[in-house]
Amino acid sequence: MSKILVLNDKFESSGEIELPASYAEVNPHNLYLYVKSYLAGIRANTAHTKSRAFVSGGGKKPWRQKGRGGARAGSTRTNVWVGGAVAFGPTNEKNYFQKVNKKQKRLALECALAKKAEDGKLFAVDSIAVESGKTKDAAKIINTLNLRDALIVKDLLDDKTLLAFRNMANCYVVDASEINAYLISVFSSVIIEKAALQTITKEG
Length: 204
Fold this sequence. Notes:
The chain is an alpha/beta fold. It contains six helices and six strands.
């Protein structure tokens, strides 16, 4: 069974709590489908080429149809001409959306949490607050736990804590309402407030 490491006010290990047993039984394919859908959704889709309809010029036939001894041509803007259009190129009209239903999203979140707990990288703490708003104070938390990077999940995100963590390249702080399976998966460790954990587990 997946267990969450509980931390005290000094961010030292003080016990364990268990995730619901059903979390460990979720098919990992749900997590794969959600991450695939999430990445497709944030795809920039900037690759764009112009077809003949969008390339300017080429309205006049460059030379007569017969009699020159050369190939016939109707426009200087076809894909065989320099400066012409591109045939079958990418366009920014393509939609990469991949549907994942509500139940699969929930199962993906449960699977991601169970995986982090299984790896011993899911930590629960009463409160994560940096009242000073200073990055050096936020860094002490990460250094105390000796983490490579971390996702910080608060029940209610306050401005001071956001200010303290936002300049750290290896940390990202979110409100419990913004948590998803992709964010949990992409960070090596997750530190979550107990109140936020209760909110997330009750929604299931």
